[in-house]
Amino acid sequence: MQTAKFDETVEVHIRTGLNVRHADEQLRGTISLPNGVGKEQTVAVFAKGDKAREAEEAGADIVGEEDLAKRIEEGFTDFDVAIATPDMMPVVGRLGRILGPQGKMPNPKVGTVTDDVGKAVGESKAGRMEYRTDRSAIVHIAIGKTSFEERALLENYAALIDEVVRAKPAAAKPKAAAKSAVKTPAARASSKTTTKATAKAAPRAAAKPKAAAKRTAKKA
Q1: 38: which DSSP letter?
Q2: Is the overall model pTM greater than 0.85, yes or no?
Q3: Cα 201 to chain center, whole Å?
Q4: What is the rounded distance in angstroms from the CA atom of residue 46 to the CA atom of residue 91?
Q5: Is-contact 122 128, C-beta < 8 A?
Q6: pLDDT average, residue stretch 18-44
Q7: Which stretches does DSSP call E strand in the chain?
Q8: Cβ(156)–Cβ(35) under 8 Å?
Q9: What DSSP string describes 145-206?
Q10: What values do phi and psi take at 111, rounded to 5?
Q11: Residue 67's domain spans which residues?
Q12: Are 185 and 140 in contact (CB under 8 A)?
């Protein structure tokens, strides 16, 4: 499966068929894949006092309060997961426009706003990831590396599909069936190039029959 000189990430893109304009058809949750994704996540925690010490002891990479919020406002987002205690949300709330689009905003629905920061940090470091639909109702998530054994990738893929089916909103119409595609970043770039080349070639190919028809008419 290796197509590049480095160990590429294998991604899954699931077209859910949901109407995400409806609040009751949003899909969002967390999952820990059975074989991990080949990368330890960098975890940032908003906490103070004993909770800050608990986060550090659990292995959090970055722990802070107002100082961490200020760093993020200045452009620092070099982490994969953000966790916050409930009392820190007034501080974290103003970071929504920065962390929200990146999928890093702490949220109580997915367990990243919690007083049990030790457990949340431990699960995140172990590979727990958040997934959610984008504006086109597609879920994008990594399931491993191209160096993984095929069996490990298949097990991760099966676990992800099972989770998405389980978490499907009850309000979704029966026809909302999920379709998925598995790609590496290099494969995505290749498919875009192929599509552009095909689109450019199509008008030229279509022009040939017309030219032939004109020559035939002149001979007649």
Answers
A1: S
A2: no
A3: 34
A4: 9
A5: no
A6: 88
A7: 9-15, 28-32, 43-46, 62-64, 81-84, 128-132, 138-145, 179-183
A8: yes
A9: ETTS-HHHHHHHHHHHHHHHHHH--TTS-TT---EEEEE-HHHHHHHHHHHHHHHHHHHHHH
A10: 80, 15
A11: 41-125
A12: no
What's 48's domain CATH number? 3.40.50.790
Q: Do residues 152 and 42 make contact, with C-beta atoms less than 8 angstroms apart?
A: no
Burial class (CB in 10 A: 0-12, 13-18, 19+), 195: exposed
Question: CB-based burial of residue 56 (10 Å sphere; 0-12 exposed, 13-18 middle, 19+ buried)?
Answer: middle
Q: What pLDDT is recorded for position 179?
A: 64
> 75's torsion region: left (phi>0), alpha (psi -120 to 50) or beta?
left
Q: How far apart are CA 207 and CA 209, in angstroms?
A: 6
Cα torsion through 19, 25, 28, 29, rounded to 10: -140
- Pairing between β-strand 43-46 and β-strand 62-64 as defined by DSSP bridges: parallel
The 3-state DSSP class for residue 92 equals: helix
112 in any annotated domain: yes
Specify if 142 maps to a domain: no
Is pLDDT at 169 greater than 90 in this prediction?
no
Across 127-132, average pLDDT: 86
Q: Domain total for the chain? A: 1
Helix or strand run (H / E) with residue 69: helix 66-73
